TrEMBL record:
Protein name: Peroxiredoxin-6
Keywords: Antioxidant, Multifunctional enzyme, Oxidoreductase, Peroxidase, Redox-active center
EC number assigned by the record: 1.11.1.27, 2.3.1.23, 3.1.1.4
Domain of life: Eukaryota
Domain Thioredoxin: 4-168
Coiled-coil regions listed: none
Lineage: Eukaryota, Metazoa, Chordata, Craniata, Vertebrata
Protein backbone atom coordinates (compact mmCIF):
# COMPACT_ATOMS: atom_id res chain seq x y z
CA UNK A 1 0.00 0.00 0.00
CA UNK A 2 1.50 3.36 -0.93
CA UNK A 3 2.54 5.22 2.21
CA UNK A 4 1.19 2.59 4.63
CA UNK A 5 3.37 -0.36 5.61
CA UNK A 6 2.98 -3.21 8.07
CA UNK A 7 3.88 -1.93 11.51
CA UNK A 8 2.90 1.68 10.74
CA UNK A 9 0.44 3.46 13.00
CA UNK A 10 -2.68 3.79 10.85
CA UNK A 11 -3.96 7.30 10.06
CA UNK A 12 -6.48 8.87 12.39
CA UNK A 13 -9.40 10.75 10.86
CA UNK A 14 -12.90 12.08 11.49
CA UNK A 15 -15.72 10.85 9.25
CA UNK A 16 -19.47 10.68 8.93
CA UNK A 17 -20.81 7.13 9.12
CA UNK A 18 -24.16 5.38 9.16
CA UNK A 19 -23.76 5.21 12.97
CA UNK A 20 -22.85 8.88 13.42
CA UNK A 21 -19.63 10.88 13.30
CA UNK A 22 -16.51 9.06 14.50
CA UNK A 23 -12.84 9.68 15.16
CA UNK A 24 -11.16 6.51 13.95
CA UNK A 25 -8.65 5.93 16.76
CA UNK A 26 -11.35 6.57 19.36
CA UNK A 27 -13.65 4.16 17.54
CA UNK A 28 -10.98 1.45 17.74
CA UNK A 29 -10.21 2.12 21.41
CA UNK A 30 -8.01 -0.68 22.75
CA UNK A 31 -9.54 -3.28 20.44
CA UNK A 32 -8.43 -5.00 17.28
CA UNK A 33 -10.04 -3.45 14.22
CA UNK A 34 -10.86 -4.18 10.60
CA UNK A 35 -11.43 -1.49 7.98
CA UNK A 36 -12.55 -2.66 4.57
CA UNK A 37 -13.50 -0.61 1.50
CA UNK A 38 -15.96 -1.11 -1.34
CA UNK A 39 -15.83 0.25 -4.92
CA UNK A 40 -19.34 1.70 -4.71
CA UNK A 41 -22.91 1.46 -3.45
CA UNK A 42 -25.49 -0.58 -5.36
CA UNK A 43 -22.80 -2.83 -6.85
CA UNK A 44 -23.35 -6.59 -6.95
CA UNK A 45 -20.15 -7.99 -5.46
CA UNK A 46 -20.11 -5.39 -2.66
CA UNK A 47 -23.69 -6.26 -1.75
CA UNK A 48 -22.76 -9.91 -1.23
CA UNK A 49 -19.64 -8.95 0.74
CA UNK A 50 -21.43 -6.65 3.16
CA UNK A 51 -24.14 -9.24 3.57
CA UNK A 52 -21.53 -11.82 4.54
CA UNK A 53 -19.78 -9.39 6.89
CA UNK A 54 -23.10 -8.70 8.63
CA UNK A 55 -23.79 -12.42 9.03
CA UNK A 56 -20.31 -12.96 10.47
CA UNK A 57 -20.45 -9.96 12.79
CA UNK A 58 -20.96 -12.14 15.92
CA UNK A 59 -17.72 -13.98 15.04
CA UNK A 60 -15.82 -10.70 14.79
CA UNK A 61 -17.36 -9.49 18.06
CA UNK A 62 -16.38 -12.75 19.78
CA UNK A 63 -12.76 -11.97 18.85
CA UNK A 64 -13.01 -8.43 20.20
CA UNK A 65 -12.82 -6.81 16.76
CA UNK A 66 -14.32 -3.45 15.82
CA UNK A 67 -15.51 -3.65 12.20
CA UNK A 68 -16.01 -0.64 9.93
CA UNK A 69 -16.51 -0.36 6.17
CA UNK A 70 -16.11 2.43 3.62
CA UNK A 71 -17.56 3.52 0.30
CA UNK A 72 -17.26 6.85 -1.51
CA UNK A 73 -21.02 7.35 -1.76
CA UNK A 74 -23.00 9.62 0.58
CA UNK A 75 -24.88 8.64 3.74
CA UNK A 76 -28.30 8.75 2.05
CA UNK A 77 -27.10 6.27 -0.58
CA UNK A 78 -25.55 4.09 2.12
CA UNK A 79 -28.77 3.83 4.11
CA UNK A 80 -30.87 2.98 1.05
CA UNK A 81 -28.30 0.45 -0.19
CA UNK A 82 -28.21 -1.22 3.23
CA UNK A 83 -31.90 -2.08 2.73
CA UNK A 84 -30.87 -4.07 -0.37
CA UNK A 85 -28.06 -5.76 1.59
CA UNK A 86 -30.48 -6.82 4.34
CA UNK A 87 -32.95 -8.05 1.73
CA UNK A 88 -30.17 -10.10 0.10
CA UNK A 89 -29.46 -11.65 3.51
CA UNK A 90 -33.14 -12.42 4.04
CA UNK A 91 -33.12 -10.17 7.11
CA UNK A 92 -35.46 -7.44 8.28
CA UNK A 93 -35.19 -4.57 5.80
CA UNK A 94 -33.71 -1.61 7.65
CA UNK A 95 -31.12 1.05 6.83
CA UNK A 96 -28.67 -0.23 9.43
CA UNK A 97 -25.92 -2.83 9.68
CA UNK A 98 -24.26 -4.09 12.89
CA UNK A 99 -21.20 -1.95 12.06
CA UNK A 100 -20.71 1.57 10.65
CA UNK A 101 -20.14 2.44 7.00
CA UNK A 102 -18.03 5.51 6.27
CA UNK A 103 -19.29 8.02 3.70
CA UNK A 104 -16.01 9.03 2.05
CA UNK A 105 -17.41 11.36 -0.61
CA UNK A 106 -14.32 13.56 -0.71
CA UNK A 107 -11.96 10.53 -0.85
CA UNK A 108 -9.97 11.82 2.13
CA UNK A 109 -9.87 8.48 3.95
CA UNK A 110 -9.32 6.56 0.71
CA UNK A 111 -6.27 8.70 -0.07
CA UNK A 112 -4.82 8.33 3.45
CA UNK A 113 -5.00 4.53 3.22
CA UNK A 114 -4.00 4.17 -0.44
CA UNK A 115 -7.34 2.69 -1.49
CA UNK A 116 -7.54 4.43 -4.87
CA UNK A 117 -6.36 2.62 -8.01
CA UNK A 118 -4.79 4.22 -11.05
CA UNK A 119 -7.76 3.14 -13.19
CA UNK A 120 -11.36 1.99 -12.55
CA UNK A 121 -13.69 4.95 -12.20
CA UNK A 122 -17.39 5.48 -11.57
CA UNK A 123 -19.55 6.76 -14.41
CA UNK A 124 -19.20 10.15 -12.69
CA UNK A 125 -15.46 10.09 -13.35
CA UNK A 126 -14.57 9.71 -9.67
CA UNK A 127 -12.20 6.87 -8.73
CA UNK A 128 -13.62 3.63 -7.39
CA UNK A 129 -11.94 2.44 -4.21
CA UNK A 130 -10.43 -1.00 -4.50
CA UNK A 131 -11.34 -3.84 -2.12
CA UNK A 132 -8.87 -3.17 0.68
CA UNK A 133 -8.69 -4.98 4.01
CA UNK A 134 -6.74 -3.47 6.90
CA UNK A 135 -6.39 -5.40 10.15
CA UNK A 136 -5.24 -3.15 12.97
CA UNK A 137 -3.89 -4.15 16.38
CA UNK A 138 -4.79 -2.61 19.76
CA UNK A 139 -1.62 -0.51 19.40
CA UNK A 140 -3.18 1.14 16.29
CA UNK A 141 -0.50 -0.44 14.10
CA UNK A 142 -1.22 -2.14 10.78
CA UNK A 143 -0.90 -5.91 11.23
CA UNK A 144 -2.11 -7.09 7.81
CA UNK A 145 -3.37 -5.65 4.53
CA UNK A 146 -4.97 -7.42 1.58
CA UNK A 147 -5.82 -5.79 -1.74
CA UNK A 148 -8.41 -7.21 -4.15
CA UNK A 149 -9.50 -5.82 -7.53
CA UNK A 150 -13.07 -4.60 -7.92
CA UNK A 151 -14.03 -7.76 -9.85
CA UNK A 152 -13.04 -10.24 -7.11
CA UNK A 153 -15.04 -10.67 -3.92
CA UNK A 154 -13.21 -11.28 -0.67
CA UNK A 155 -13.28 -14.45 1.41
CA UNK A 156 -14.42 -13.39 4.87
CA UNK A 157 -13.65 -16.90 6.12
CA UNK A 158 -10.02 -16.20 5.19
CA UNK A 159 -10.16 -12.85 6.97
CA UNK A 160 -11.36 -14.61 10.13
CA UNK A 161 -8.59 -17.19 9.73
CA UNK A 162 -5.85 -14.57 9.52
CA UNK A 163 -7.33 -12.72 12.50
CA UNK A 164 -7.11 -15.95 14.50
CA UNK A 165 -3.49 -16.34 13.42
CA UNK A 166 -2.60 -12.72 14.22
CA UNK A 167 -4.17 -12.84 17.65
CA UNK A 168 -2.57 -16.19 18.46
CA UNK A 169 0.92 -15.19 17.32
CA UNK A 170 0.68 -11.84 19.12
CA UNK A 171 0.20 -13.73 22.40
CA UNK A 172 2.56 -16.70 21.92
CA UNK A 173 5.99 -17.11 20.32
CA UNK A 174 4.65 -19.16 17.45
CA UNK A 175 3.87 -18.86 13.75
CA UNK A 176 1.14 -20.55 11.73
CA UNK A 177 2.23 -22.77 8.82
CA UNK A 178 0.78 -23.02 5.33
CA UNK A 179 -2.98 -23.67 5.20
CA UNK A 180 -3.21 -23.49 9.00
CA UNK A 181 -6.66 -23.63 10.52
CA UNK A 182 -7.55 -22.94 14.18
CA UNK A 183 -6.76 -26.02 16.22
CA UNK A 184 -3.96 -27.23 13.93
CA UNK A 185 -0.38 -27.52 15.11
CA UNK A 186 1.68 -24.34 15.05
CA UNK A 187 5.36 -23.67 14.51
CA UNK A 188 7.74 -22.42 17.20
CA UNK A 189 9.45 -19.12 16.36
CA UNK A 190 13.11 -19.40 15.39
CA UNK A 191 14.00 -16.88 18.13
CA UNK A 192 13.03 -19.45 20.79
CA UNK A 193 15.88 -21.71 21.95
CA UNK A 194 15.47 -25.46 22.47
CA UNK A 195 15.54 -24.99 26.23
CA UNK A 196 12.99 -22.18 26.12
CA UNK A 197 10.75 -24.23 23.82
CA UNK A 198 10.54 -27.07 26.34
CA UNK A 199 9.44 -24.61 29.04
CA UNK A 200 7.05 -22.59 26.90
CA UNK A 201 5.36 -25.54 25.20
CA UNK A 202 4.79 -28.29 27.77
CA UNK A 203 2.53 -30.27 25.43
CA UNK A 204 5.56 -31.28 23.41
CA UNK A 205 7.77 -30.19 20.55
CA UNK A 206 8.13 -32.20 17.36
CA UNK A 207 11.15 -31.38 15.20
CA UNK A 208 11.19 -32.36 11.54
CA UNK A 209 14.49 -33.94 10.41
CA UNK A 210 15.95 -32.13 7.39
CA UNK A 211 18.97 -32.78 5.12
CA UNK A 212 20.57 -29.55 6.34
CA UNK A 213 20.59 -30.85 9.89
CA UNK A 214 19.13 -27.53 11.06
CA UNK A 215 16.34 -27.94 13.60
CA UNK A 216 14.15 -25.05 12.51
CA UNK A 217 10.94 -26.91 11.62
CA UNK A 218 9.52 -27.30 15.12
CA UNK A 219 5.84 -27.99 15.68
CA UNK A 220 3.73 -27.92 18.82
CA UNK A 221 0.00 -28.16 19.58
CA UNK A 222 -1.75 -24.83 19.36
CA UNK A 223 -1.67 -23.01 22.73
CA UNK A 224 -5.27 -22.69 23.88
CA UNK A 225 -5.00 -20.12 26.68
Amino acid sequence: MPGLLLGDVVPDFEAETTCGKIRFHDFLGNSWGILFSHPGDYTPVCTTELGRAAKLYPEFAKRGIRVISLSVNNLADHREWIKDINAYNGDKITGTLPFPMIADENHEVSKKFGMLPSTAKHSTGLPRTVRSVFIIGPDKKLKLSILYPASTGRSFDEILRVVDSLQLTAKHEVATPVDWQPGDKVMISTTVSEEEARKLFPHGVCTRDLPSGKNYLRFTPQPMD
